[in-house]
Specification:
single chain; 7-stranded mixed beta sheet; Helix Hairpins; Spore Coat Polysaccharide Biosynthesis Protein SpsA, Chain A; 607 residues; elongated; 44% helix
Length: 607
C-alpha cells in the first residue's frame, strides 16, 4: 500500500513538472512571437529597439499653455503609434523635459498636477539651472534622460514648443531617406552662419563671445536649426554619455553641430519651415517662402499655441490630402458640405484665429451655388474693368467673399513713398548738406532754410508760388532725412557704383584703385569706425584687422525698394504677415548678393 502511494505521488510530481515546463515554453514562445510581430523591431545585427522614434521637447517649467497646446495640437496625430499597436505603425514616444527648480509654490503645485495627469514630463537633474544660455546643456541632458529611461530607439527628434510637426509626412520622409536602419544620421535644416562675436555686437540677441574665443573660428560649423532636427540612437548616446565632459556652448543648435562635428555620420537636409503660411487648395504644406524645392514641410517653426489647435482641428475636420497621407484623391463628404473652396481650388482660406471663425460663419451663411452658377459669377467678375487690371499672383485673398479680390503687385521702388514735389530732386541738395551729415547738422540746416524760404516773406510777389514749393520740399526732405529708418531707405535707393576691381593694369597702383572702392562701400557699415586700406607702410596687425573687418562686413544697406507688395494693402493681420514674409524673401536675395559682392571685393584685394 505504501509503495503504491509513493508511486502515485511520484507520477503526480512528474506530471506537474511536465506541465510547468510546457507552460514556460508556451509563454516564452508567445513573448518571442509578440516581440517579433509588433512595432518593437529587431535592427541590424539582431539588436532590438523599444521605440522607433522619440520626440524630445525641452520646455521651461512655467510653459503650461505651450505644452498643452502641443498635446491638444499636432500630438493628437500620435494616437495609434503606441508600442504593440495592432496596426503595425511606427512606435513613437513624446516627452517634455523641464528643470527641477520652481519659481514659486503655485508653479510647483501646477507642475506636479500636470506631471501626474499626463505622465509625459521628465525632470532634469537638480544641479542643472534652467537658463536660456544653458539650452545646449539642457538638450544634451534631455538626450541622456531619453537614453537612460526609454531604452533603445532608432531616432530622436528634438523640437520646440512652438514647432508644429506633420507626423505622417515626417515618417514618410524617414522612409524615403532610409533613416530607420540604425546608421548614424543627423537630419535638419542646416546652416553655416558667421559668429557674432565682436564687442560692439554684445547687445545683439545672437551675440556669442565664447565660440570664437574657444575655437578661433569666425563661422559656425554645419548645424541644424533648433526648430527641429533628428539624430540616430548612437549619436544621442554619445551626447548623453560622452567619454569626456563636453564644452557648453551658448546656442543649443550650434552646440549639437559642434559636438558632432568630429563624428562620422550621414547628414540629411530635412524640409523645416519657419512660420510658413498655408497655401494652395485649402491647406497645402508646400512652403514657397523658405525655398525648399517644392518639398512638403515636415516641421513648421514659430507657430503660436492657438494655431497648433486650429491646424490640427482643420486636419481632423476636413481630412485634407495636403495634411495627411491618403490613397484616395476624392474630397471627404464633410469637406464637400462645409467648405466649397476645397472643391474648385479657389484662393486659399487664410488661417488664423478670429478670422477663421468668421470664415466658418460665412460658409454657413453663404448659399451654395451650383457649378454653372459659380462659373457664371466668375465670368461676370472677370469681365469687369477692375478685375481685368488685377494681378494673378498667389498672395492670400482678402475676406470679401468666395471670389476674393486679388491684390495688385506693387512695382519696384514704391516701398519708400516720397511726396510728388520731391520728384527729380536730391534730398541732400534740398537741405544743402552732404550725404554724411549728422542729425544735428540736418536740423541746423533745416531751421536756417525754413526761415529763409518761409512763404510769408514773398507774400504778394510773383515768387510766392515758387517759394511755397521750395518751402514744401524742405519740409518733406527733412521728414525723410530726420527719420533714421527712412533715411537708410532713401540712401539705399540712390545710385551706387557696385563695380569690383579685378585685375590691375601695369601702371595702376593698388592703393589708388582699391582705396576709393573700400571708402565708398564703408558708408554701408553698421560698425564704426571703419578701418581704411592704408598704404605700404601700414602695420601688419592693422592690415589683419582691416581684412578681418571686411570679411565679416555688417551692412545696413536697405533693399526695401525692391519689395513687391505693400503692407498697407493687407486686409488682416495674417495677410500682413504673409506680405512681410514675401518682401523679406526678396530682400534676402539682394542681401545675399550684396554680401557676395563685398566678399568678392575683399578676395580681389587679397590676391
Amino acid at each position: 500500500m505504501a509503495d503504491r502511494l509513493v508511486g502515485c505521488h511520484s507520477r503526480l510530481f512528474l506530471l506537474l513538472l511536465i506541465l510547468t515546463n510546457l507552460c514556460v515554453a508556451v509563454q516564452e514562445q508567445q513573448q518571442q512571437s509578440t516581440f517579433e510581430g509588433n512595432t518593437i523591431l529587431k535592427g541590424d545585427g539582431g539588436q532590438a529597439y523599444d521605440w522607433d522614434l522619440v520626440i524630445v521637447i525641452p520646455s521651461h517649467i512655467t510653459e503650461f499653455s505651450r505644452r498643452c497646446a502641443v498635446r491638444d495640437g499636432w500630438a493628437r496625430q500620435l494616437r495609434g503609434h503606441e508600442q504593440n499597436n495592432r496596426a503595425g505603425l511606427r512606435s513613437i514616444k513624446l516627452l517634455f523635459t523641464v528643470g527641477a527648480h520652481y519659481p514659486d509654490n503655485s508653479t510647483r503645485d501646477t507642475a506636479m498636477a500636470e506631471m501626474k495627469q499626463f505622465d509625459d514630463i521628465i525632470t532634469l537633474p537638480s544641479d542643472f539651472v534652467d537658463r536660456y544660455d544653458a539650452l545646449g546643456t539642457k538638450v544634451r541632458l534631455s538626450f541622456r534622460e531619453a537614453v537612460d529611461r526609454l531604452g533603445r530607439f532608432r531616432l530622436v527628434l528634438k523640437a520646440d514648443t512652438d514647432s508644429y510637426v506633420h507626423v505622417e509626412k515626417l515618417l514618410d520622409f524617414f522612409d524615403k531617406e532610409n533613416m530607420w536602419n540604425g546608421d548614424p544620421v543627423y537630419a535638419g535644416s542646416f546652416r553655416h552662419a558667421p559668429v557674432m562675436w565682436e564687442p560692439e555686437d554684445k547687445d545683439h540677441k545672437w551675440f556669442d563671445g565664447e565660440f570664437t574665443k574657444m575655437t578661433g573660428l569666425t563661422q559656425y560649423p554645419w548645424n541644424a536649426q533648433g526648430g527641429g532636427y533628428v539624430i540616430s540612437y548612437d549619436l544621442a548616446k554619445y551626447l548623453a554619455h560622452p567619454p569626456l565632459e563636453l564644452k557648453s556652448w551658448t546656442h543649443e543648435d550650434v552646440g549639437v553641430g559642434a559636438w558632432l562635428m568630429a563624428l562620422d555620420y550621414r547628414r540629411v537636409d530635412m524640409p523645416v519651415g519657419f512660420a510658413a503660411p498655408e497655401c494652395g487648395c485649402a491647406l497645402d504644406c508646400v512652403d514657397p517662402i523658405n525655398d525648399l524645392g517644392g518639398r512638403d514641410l515636415v516641421i513648421d517653426h514659430y507657430v503660436p499655441p492657438f494655431l497648433h489647435r486650429v491646424r490640427q482641428r482643420r486636419m481632423e475636420l476636413f481630412g485634407d490630402d495636403c495634411w495627411v497621407s491618403s490613397l484616395s484623391n476624392t474630397i471627404s463628404p464633410l469637406a464637400e458640405k462645409v467648405i466649397p473652396v476645397n472643391n474648385m481650388c479657389y484662393s486659399p482660406m487664410w488661417l488664423g484665429g478670429e478670422d477663421l471663425q468668421n470664415d466658418f460663419h460665412r460658409v454657413w451663411e453663404k448659399p451654395r451655388l451650383s457649378r454653372s452658377e459659380r462659373r457664371r459669377a466668375h465670368k461676370e467678375n472677370s469681365d469687369t474693368p477692375e478685375s481685368s487690371a488685377e494681378s494673378t499672383s498667389e498672395e492670400p485673398s482678402s475676406r470679401t467673399g468666395w471670389s476674393a479680390k486679388r491684390k495688385t503687385k506693387k512695382p519696384i521702388g514704391e516701398q519708400l513713398k516720397l511726396n510728388k514735389v520731391l520728384d527729380g530732386f536730391n534730398l541732400y541738395d534740398i537741405l544743402k548738406i552732404s550725404p554724411t551729415a549728422t542729425q544735428e547738422q540736418i536740423k541746423k540746416s533745416y531751421r536756417r532754410l525754413i526761415l529763409e524760404h518761409h512763404p510769408d516773406k514773398k507774400k504778394g510777389s510773383a515768387e510766392e508760388e515758387e517759394e511755397k514749393m521750395i518751402f514744401l520740399r524742405i519740409q518733406e526732405a527733412f521728414e525723410v532725412l530726420s527719420d533714421e529708418r527712412r533715411r537708410k531707405q532713401y540712401d539705399s535707393s540712390l545710385p551706387f557704383d557696385e563695380d569690383v576691381p579685378t585685375e590691375l593694369e601695369e601702371d595702376e597702383d593698388f592703393y589708388e584703385v582699391f582705396g576709393p572702392v573700400f571708402d565708398s562701400n564703408a558708408r554701408w557699415s553698421n560698425r564704426r569706425p571703419v578701418p581704411r586700406l592704408g598704404d605700404d607702410a601700414s602695420d601688419l596687425n592693422k592690415v589683419k584687422r582691416f581684412y578681418h573687418f571686411w570679411m565679416n562686413f555688417d551692412s545696413w544697406r536697405d533693399f526695401s525698394q525692391h519689395d513687391e507688395y505693400d503692407v498697407a494693402d493687407a486686409s488682416c493681420r495674417e495677410e500682413r504677415r504673409w506680405v512681410e514674409r514675401q518682401n523679406q524673401r526678396i530682400r534676402r536675395k539682394y542681401e545675399t548678393a550684396e554680401a557676395s559682392r563685398v566678399r568678392k571685393l575683399v578676395e580681389s584685394a587679397m590676391q
